[in-house]
Design a protein that fits this description.
- The protein is of the alpha+beta class and 256 residues long.
- It is built from four helices and 16 strands.
- The strands form two sheets. Strands 2-3-4-1-5-8-7-6 form an eight-stranded mixed β-sheet, with helices on one face. The protein has an eight-stranded mixed β-sheet with strand order 10-11-12-9-13-16-15-14, with helices on one face.
- Strand 2 and strand 3 form a beta hairpin.
- The radius of gyration is 17 Å and the shape is globular.
Length: 256
Amino acid sequence: MSLITTHPHGNFCWVELATTDQTGAKAFYAQLFGWAIADQDMGPDGLYTIFKLKNVDAAAAYTLHPQRMAGVPPHWTLYVAVDDADASAARCVELGGEQIAPPFNVHDLGRMAMMKDPSGAAHVAWQGMANPGIGIAHEVGALCWGELNTTDTTKAKNYYSQLFGWELKTGNAGGMEYTEILQNGKPIGGIADLPPGVNAPPHWLPYFGVSDCDATAAQVVALGGKVILAPLAISEKSRIAVMLDPQGAVFAVYQE
C-alpha cells in the first residue's frame, strides 16, 4: 500500500468532487471504488465528505452552492502541492493565468489558491499545514494520474513547467502527441489536445486505479453513470476508460 505522509512541491495532493447531489455521489463512488464515507459539518455550507480508502483520505466531495455556483456543472478538481500558495498565485498571473480566488487559509489545514491556466483549465495550489493531502495513491481505488486536456498544449507546457517545476517529456501515443508530466523524475500525469469533437472546455481529468477496466465500465453503467470512452488498451497490459458519474462529473480509470 502506497501510504503518503507528505507531498513535495508539484505533486498532485488532493482530488475533490463538486456535485449537485452529494448523497447520490457518495453512494455511487462508495460502491464503485470501495470508499468509506466520513462527513464533516461545515455549518451553513453543508457537509464536506472525505472519501477514505484503507482508513486514509483518498478524495473529497461537496455540494455546488445553487446561488454562488449557479450554472457550474459537476466536476472533479485536482490540487497540486506547493511550498508557498501566495507565491504560486502571483506566479500564475505572471504566466498568463488567472486567480479565481486569492490565497486563503482553510482553518489550520492548509492555505490554498484557486487558479485557471491561460486556456481556462481550473486547478488549485495547496500549501499543506495540518493536512498535507491524500494519504494514498497509485492503488486500486486511489488517484493514480492527472491529465490536462487543453486547446493549447504549447502554452500549457510553458505555464505548468514554470509554475510547478514539472519536467515535461513529449512523445507519441496512439498516433497523437502526448506530453508526460514528471515530478522529481516520476511520471504523474500528462498533457494532451482536447480530442476532436469533444464539446468540453479545457480541464484536468483525474484517473483512479482499478483492477479490471471493463468490469468497472459495466459497473458505472449499472450504477447510473455513462461510459464516454469505452475501455481502451494503451499498452500490452494497461487499459483506460473515461466515464460520467450519474450527476455528470467526468473521471477516468486506469488498469495496470
